[in-house]
Design brief:
Elements: H1 13-70, E1 89-94, E2 97-105, E3 110-111, H2 120-139, H3 144-158, H4 182-186, H5 189-193, E4 203-204, E5 211-212, H6 218-223, H7 230-240, E6 268-273, E7 276-282, H8 283-287, E8 291-292, E9 297-306, E10 309-324, E11 327-339
Parallel strand pairs: 3-4, 5-8
Antiparallel strand pairs: 1-2, 2-9, 6-7, 9-10, 10-11
Helix pairs in contact: 2-3
Length: 342
C-alpha cells in the first residue's frame, strides 16, 4: 500500500516581506520628504530672521544718517567736508551685526536727469557728461573700455541721440537696465577699498542740478567747463581741502559764496593792456550758473553686515534750513530709499 502524501500549504512569507519592504520604502520617502520640508522651513525661518536683522540694521543706519545731517553745523550757509556728516560712521548693533555709513553730498555730483530735454541747461549738462567720462578714462586708463561702455549705455538710456528713446531712471539703479553692471554703478568692497571710482560717486538723479564747489568730486569739477583742466581742479582742491575720510576738520575751508572761486589761482587771469589791467580769462563766469556752496540733497550709503552676510542700501535725504526764533534749524527728511539687488 502506497503511503499517502499530504500537501502542506506554503506560508505567505515572501508576500509579507514584499509588503514590509514596500512600507519601509514608503516611510523612507515620507521621512525624506518631511526632512526636506523641515529643512526648507528652517532655511526660510533663518532667512526671515536674517532679513529682519538686515532691515533693523539698515534702519539704524538710516536714523543715524539723519541725525548726522541734522547736527548743528559750523556754518549754516554752506555744506562742506569740514562738517561732521562727512565722517565715516561705523557702529556695532549686537553680536555679528554692524553697519557702515558713508554720507555724500548729491550736489557734489552731476544730476544726469538735467541732461535730458532740449533746454540750454540740458545741452550744457550733456557737455559736462562728455567731459566727465573723458576724465574717468584718463584717471583710470586700465578701465578705459569699461568707462567707454558705461558712457554709451548712459547716453542711450537718457536718449542723447535721435534714435534713442529717453527713459530717465528714477534712481541710479535704473541705469542697470541700460546694461551698466552693479560693480560699475556702485563698486564692490575691493574697489572701494582701493579707491576705485564708481558712477555713484559722480552721478545722481536728485537735487536741483547745481554743483557744490565745496564737495564736488574732481571728475565733476573737471566736467564743469572746457577750461577746467587738471591744474584748475588741483588748485580748487588745494583751496578747499581734499575729500579724505582720515583728514581732520581743520584741513577744510569752505567756499562761502560762489564768487570766492575767483580767488583760486588760474580761474581769473589779467594782463596789462595799454597801461590798464584787463581780464583775459574768467572761468568763473563760464560756469557760475552751475555752481552753489550749499546743498539740498544728501545720500547715505549703508553697508549692513549680519552674520557674515552683507546688504547694500541707499537713503536719499532732502535738506532745508528754516528760521525758528531767530535761529537757523536744519530740517532733513528721507526722500527715497532703495536696496541694491545682488
Amino acid at each position: 500500500m502506497m503511503p499517502l502524501h499530504t500537501h502542506t500549504p506554503r506560508r505567505p512569507g515572501g508576500a509579507i516581506l514584499l509588503l514590509v519592504l514596500g512600507a519601509v520604502a514608503i516611510l523612507s520617502v515620507l521621512a525624506v520628504e518631511l526632512y526636506s520640508r523641515s529643512m526648507a522651513d528652517v532655511r526660510r525661518v533663518t532667512m526671515a530672521k536674517r532679513e529682519a536683522a538686515c532691515r533693523r540694521v539698515i534702519d539704524s543706519g538710516l536714523e543715524l544718517s539723519k541725525a548726522a545731517l541734522c547736527q548743528i553745523k559750523k556754518n549754516d550757509d554752506v555744506d562742506y567736508f569740514g562738517d561732521r556728516w562727512a565722517r565715516r560712521i561705523e557702529r556695532e548693533c549686537g553680536s555679528e551685526e554692524k553697519f557702515v555709513v558713508t554720507i555724500s553730498d548729491e550736489s557734489g555730483k552731476l544730476n544726469i536727469l538735467k541732461a535730458t530735454g532740449d533746454s540750454e541747461q540740458a545741452a550744457q549738462m550733456r557737455k559736462c557728461l562728455v567731459r566727465l567720462f573723458a576724465y574717468l578714462k584718463k584717471a583710470e586708463p586700465e578701465r578705459e573700455k569699461e568707462w567707454m561702455a558705461a558712457e554709451q549705455a548712459t547716453q542711450k538710456r537718457l536718449g542723447f541721440t535721435g534714435t534713442d528713446k529717453a527713459v530717465p531712471p528714477l534712481t541710479l539703479d535704473g541705469l542697470r537696465e541700460g546694461g551698466i553692471s552693479k560693480e560699475m554703478l556702485y563698486g564692490n568692497p575691493q574697489q572701494r577699498e582701493a579707491g576705485k571710482l564708481a558712477l555713484c560717486d559722480v552721478f545722481t538723479v536728485f537735487g536741483e542740478g547745481k554743483i557744490n564747489l565745496n564737495t564736488a568730486h574732481p571728475a565733476v569739477l573737471y566736467a564743469l567747463e572746457q577750461g577746467y583742466d587738471e591744474s584748475i581742479v588741483e588748485a580748487i582742491e588745494r583751496w578747499r581741502g581734499k575729500s579724505d575720510k582720515e583728514a581732520s576738520d581743520a584741513q577744510f575751508r569752505p567756499f562761502k559764496e560762489i564768487k570766492d572761486l575767483e580767488t583760486v589761482k588760474g580761474i581769473v587771469e589779467t594782463q596789462l593792456v595799454d597801461g590798464k589791467m584787463k581780464v583775459t580769462k574768467n572761468l568763473f563766469l563760464k560756469a557760475k550758473d552751475l555752481l552753489a556752496v550749499k546743498s539740498d540733497c544728501f545720500c547715505a550709503r549703508i553697508e549692513a553686515h549680519v552674520n557674515g552676510h552683507s546688504r547694500l542700501a541707499y537713503g536719499f535725504y532732502k535738506s532745508s534750513t528754516v528760521l525758528l526764533d531767530a535761529k537757523k534749524i536744519t530740517s532733513v527728511e528721507l526722500e527715497c530709499y532703495e536696496e541694491v539687488e545682488p
